[in-house]
């Protein structure tokens, strides 16, 4: 397949997620504006950080003056999963030059990672397909953040019109695309239970790390149990 064909195949694959991400970007821009960030600052944050989860957490704990150490630590907790995601998708990038791998990782998000993993399960992942997924998704996020910051005053409370559910809705769809039966359910239950318990009893963003750790532990234990049974 040609580079052009692969690129537009990636664009078509990510297109439904682009639509779903629009309200999320608008909400982030509106929340950032409500915290006192200018449209330029909100847009730069989306362009340079490009991590919706950590950006929302940062806005949740934003103060004046901002505690950069607290913001940085919260972002680290939220995005530490990217180490595992990068290690996973890195194995699929045999067709990538080294510079393409490094550049590609800079725009890796849950959505293009999940779709790349699904693609790699069927045929070789190419730089053109990755670019087709990532470039529109990145630009969509940045532009929607800008628009949200500009019209934040008119949006009002996102929860009133249901926009606050857009973020979890996208992740529910992504998770279900990886469903592989009861084993997947076990991981999800362990992760959700740990996150809820920690969120109720520990302040800050530790519930995210707890959920990730519990999910990993459940997956490891399940894999070990299966190996013992089949031996």
Automatic annotation (TrEMBL):
<keyword id="KW-1133">Transmembrane helix</keyword>
<feature type="transmembrane region" description="Helical">
    <location>
        <begin position="183"/>
        <end position="199"/>
    </location>
</feature>
<keyword id="KW-0472">Membrane</keyword>
<feature type="transmembrane region" description="Helical">
    <location>
        <begin position="13"/>
        <end position="33"/>
    </location>
</feature>
<protein>
    <submittedName>
        <fullName>AzlC family ABC transporter permease</fullName>
    </submittedName>
</protein>
<feature type="transmembrane region" description="Helical">
    <location>
        <begin position="65"/>
        <end position="84"/>
    </location>
</feature>
<dbReference type="GO" id="GO:1903785">
    <property type="term" value="P:L-valine transmembrane transport"/>
</dbReference>
<keyword id="KW-0813">Transport</keyword>
<comment type="similarity">
    <text>Belongs to the AzlC family.</text>
</comment>
<feature type="transmembrane region" description="Helical">
    <location>
        <begin position="205"/>
        <end position="225"/>
    </location>
</feature>
<dbReference type="Pfam" id="PF03591">
    <property type="entry name" value="AzlC"/>
</dbReference>
<feature type="transmembrane region" description="Helical">
    <location>
        <begin position="128"/>
        <end position="153"/>
    </location>
</feature>
<keyword id="KW-1003">Cell membrane</keyword>
<keyword id="KW-0812">Transmembrane</keyword>
<dbReference type="GO" id="GO:0005886">
    <property type="term" value="C:plasma membrane"/>
</dbReference>
<feature type="transmembrane region" description="Helical">
    <location>
        <begin position="159"/>
        <end position="176"/>
    </location>
</feature>
<dbReference type="InterPro" id="IPR011606">
    <property type="entry name" value="Brnchd-chn_aa_trnsp_permease"/>
</dbReference>
